[in-house]
């Protein structure tokens, strides 16, 4: 790809952070890129002329996270469980665009999540640990499903210490309760309410059983 063209097009796009746990704001337009996702630190754009590339553009006050994420990708190297890292610019990194649907979207669209996803994520975590990293912040929007297999999309926190237990809770919820929702399209409001409840709960005091019971009550009320 002509990187100077990418630089010029991306310079017309502005990504601004909006505070803790708030999504970034994207301003500007480009004939070369389409925005395919936003997070709390960056927005991801896909090249229209060469759609195999995705550009993750960070807000100017989050460039430290850009450097950290690049270091993570360099340590990971090539792996079937993560996107391919191609390079960087002043405020962005370039990775492979990964086809598929996030597990978040699977829930609200009623798409079956196979057990192989659990195995793939566990293997991805083991691989990351073997590279001296600490895979964490693994949640529904960071796991993509394509042709029955899983891939992890966001590695921005893999240099941080500690265990946020997000994957452990998701895995437990899947193993014990997913059969109750499998194939059912969950209301978006229900999923968002569950996400906000979880974010307000300290990991060490979180109880999967009580959480799922509350979600089931909400699910029945929403039908």
UniProtKB/TrEMBL annotation:
Q: Name the source's superkingdom.
A: Bacteria
Which named protein is this?
Serine/threonine protein kinase
């Amino acid at each position: 790809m002509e990187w100077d063209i990418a630089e010029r097009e991306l310079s017309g796009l502005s990504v601004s952070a909006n505070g803790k746990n708030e999504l970034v704001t994207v301003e500007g337009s480009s004939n070369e890129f389409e925005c395919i996702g936003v997070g709390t630190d960056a927005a991801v754009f896909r090249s229209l002329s060469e759609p195999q590339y995705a550009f993750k553009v960070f807000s100017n006050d989050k460039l430290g996270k850009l450097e950290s994420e690049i270091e993570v990708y360099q340590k990971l190297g090539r792996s079937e469980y993560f996107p391919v890292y191609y390079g960087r610019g002043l405020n962005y990194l370039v990775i492979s665009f990964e086809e598929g649907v996030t597990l978040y979207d699977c829930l609200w669209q009623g798409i079956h999540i196979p057990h192989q996803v659990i195995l793939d994520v566990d293997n991805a975590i083991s691989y990351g640990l073997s590279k001296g990293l600490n895979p964490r912040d693994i949640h529904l929007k960071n796991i993509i499903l394509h042709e029955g297999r899983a891939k992890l999309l966001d590695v921005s926190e893999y240099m941080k210490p500690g265990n946020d237990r997000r994957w452990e809770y998701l895995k437990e919820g899947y193993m014990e309760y997913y059969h109750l929702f499998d194939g059912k399209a969950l209301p978006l409001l229900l999923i968002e309410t569950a996400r906000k409840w979880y974010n307000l709960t300290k990991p060490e005091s979180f109880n999967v059983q009580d959480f799922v019971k509350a979600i089931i009550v909400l699910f029945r009320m929403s039908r």
